[in-house]
């Protein structure tokens, strides 16, 4: 358990810096790392991906709070939109965690591997979301929240990867879309992690140090360092060009995604 905590504390510095520097969700790098770490520490193979996804969501609760405070100081968060989306996030997160509980760890690895491949290719190509229409009314927007919450919970991300392009596509200004991505990450991660905690208690075999599907040594290790290194990453993003770094990171995402699919 101490080894997992120390490894995750070191990795938390890296993941937080990457998140702040490149503006990506931490779950993209946290999930494959925890899966690799647990598999190399003799943890039960049939629940490794569930544990990696749940632990990633738990760490996002901590890091999203910092982002929300920073965005709120700039008054960039449109809270009425968050209020409409949150019930959908809650329902979708619970269903996503429930689905992940019943899927095999191998299938979850395939789903996440495909997600990494798509994100890596998107970073290489540099696709941009353009404004298209206005936000839908309350009911359709709430249903959309359910879909985004379910998918985000299934793969262990905070939701910004889905929320930000969706908002920009519906004519929400970019700075407000990014702020909404930060604000929406909290309810998705909170309800998702809680769902994994409750549902995981039904699993027959769990890694040592788990509460439900959340691995506490990994959670505390990443949380205690990524929160501060993310701020450093944001500062660095204003000092150095990130376009080349994004290209390099996209290659890493593609390589990790392929490895998860093959293995």
Q: In brief, what are we looking at here?
A:
The chain has 263 residues and is mostly helical. It contains ten helices and two strands, in the order ααααααααββαα.
Description:
- The protein is mostly helical and 263 residues long.
- The protein has one domain (2-262).
- 77% of the residues lie in helices and 2% in strands.
- The chain is built from ten helices and two strands, in the order ααααααααββαα.
- It has helices spanning 2-22, 27-39, 48-73, 79-102, 105-125, 138-155, 160-169, 174-200, 216-237, 243-262, and strands at residues 210-211, 214-215.
- α2 packs antiparallel against α3, α4 (79-102) crosses α6 and α7 packs antiparallel against α8 (174-200).
Distance between the termini: 25 Å
| Overall strand count | 2
Order of helices and strands: HHHHHHHHEEHH
Radius of gyration: 17 Å
User: Helical segment tally?
Assistant: 10
Give a quick account of the main beta sheet: strands, pairing sense, barrel closure. 2 strands, antiparallel
Which sequence of strands runs across the widest sheet? Answer: 1-2
Helix content: over 70%
Mean pLDDT level: 84
Strand content: under 5%
Provide the structure class: mainly alpha
Low-confidence stretches: none
Number of domains: 1
Q: Please state the overall shape, judged from the principal axes of the Cα atoms.
A: globular
């Amino acid at each position: 358990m101490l080894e997992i905590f120390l490894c995750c504390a070191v990795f938390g510095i890296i993941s937080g810096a990457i998140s702040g520097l490149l503006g990506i969700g931490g779950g993209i790098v946290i999930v494959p790392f925890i899966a690799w770490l647990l598999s190399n520490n003799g943890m039960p193979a049939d629940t490794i991906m569930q544990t990696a996804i749940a632990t990633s969501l738990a760490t996002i609760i901590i890091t999203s709070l910092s982002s929300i405070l920073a965005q709120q100081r700039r008054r960039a968060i449109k809270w009425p939109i968050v209020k409409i989306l949150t019930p959908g996030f809650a329902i979708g997160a619970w269903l996503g965690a429930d689905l992940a509980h019943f899927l095999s760890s191998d299938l979850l690895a395939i789903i996440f591997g495909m997600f990494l491949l798509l994100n890596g290719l998107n970073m290489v190509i540099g696709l941009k979301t353009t404004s298209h229409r206005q936000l839908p009314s309350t009911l359709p927007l709430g249903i959309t929240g359910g879909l985004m919450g379910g998918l985000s919970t299934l793969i262990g991300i905070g939701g910004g990867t889905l929320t930000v392009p969706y908002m920009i596509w519906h004519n929400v200004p970019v700075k407000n879309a990014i702020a909404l991505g930060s604000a929406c990450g909290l309810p998705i991660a909170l309800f998702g992690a809680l769902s994994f905690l409750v549902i995981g208690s039904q699993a027959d075999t769990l890694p040592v140090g788990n509460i439900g599907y959340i691995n506490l040594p990994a959670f505390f290790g990443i949380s205690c360092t990524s929160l501060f290194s993310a701020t450093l990453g944001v500062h660095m993003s204003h000092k150095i060009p990130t376009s080349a770094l994004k290209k390099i990171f996209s290659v890493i995402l593609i390589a990790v995604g392929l490895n998860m699919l093959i293995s």
